[in-house]
Specification:
Elements (H helix, E strand, L loop, with lengths): L1 H9 L11 H4 L17 H18 L2 E5 L7 E5 L1 H5 L3 E5 L3 H15 L21 E5 L9 H7 L6 E5 L26
Length: 190
């Protein structure tokens, strides 16, 4: 991971690992350092976590959850975006915590009013750090990841997109030479 962060910094993509002023990142305050890993949480911690999710939904309309990976890449996802703003929830794999939260906040801010999500198009303006794609991903592919969303929506319908980004050399997953541990759960083509 350290080697990858160094490569990100070399390309001018600052990986945010230290505590920073979230307003300067355009992030929601509750998204700063929420951790959720049900396997390591006590029943009381799970209850407190679900209360925190509910509070964030009331205050901001959504919540973002970051999960540190043990032997797999970390990931981050939104909950409540679909219900509150009518746009798909978003899933991000293998980016640092604060950067993931920043991208979710940018996604919501950019698309919540127009409702049109450009799928499979290179987006240059979701962040100034790198271009990205949004791809459709079946929630069936995400059931091991999006526990808060599954609990929140229950039997209600909801949708997800996944943010796909380049490696540190600018290569996307289907490019020759692509080298990163991002998990792609939808169908990507650039």
């Amino acid at each position: 991971m350290k080697e990858h962060l160094e490569r990100l910094k070399q390309l001018g993509i600052e990986a945010i690992e230290r505590t920073r002023n979230l307003k300067s990142l355009n992030c929601r305050p509750t998204a700063s350092n929420t951790l959720y890993h049900q396997k390591t949480m006590t029943d009381q911690q799970v209850k407190e976590y679900h209360e925190k999710v509910a509070d964030a939904m009331k205050k901001y309309g959504y919540h973002s959850t970051f999960v540190f990976g043990d032997s797999t890449p970390s990931f981050c996802y939104s909950t409540g975006v679909y219900k509150r703003f009518g746009i798909p929830e978003i899933f991000i794999s293998a980016l640092p915590q604060n950067l993931s939260h920043e991208l979710i906040a940018n996604y919501v801010s950019k698309f919540k009013d127009n409702g049109l999500i450009p799928l499979n198009e290179k987006l240059q303006n979701l962040t100034d750090r790198f271009p990205a794609y949004l791809i459709e991903v079946s929630k069936d592919m995400l059931t091991d990841y999006i526990l808060s969303s599954l609990r929140f929506y229950g039997n209600e319908d909801f949708e997800y997109v996944q943010l796909v980004y380049p490696d540190t050399k600018g290569h996307f997953p289907d490019d020759i030479g692509y080298d990163y541990d991002q998990v792609i759960l939808g169908r990507f083509k650039n």
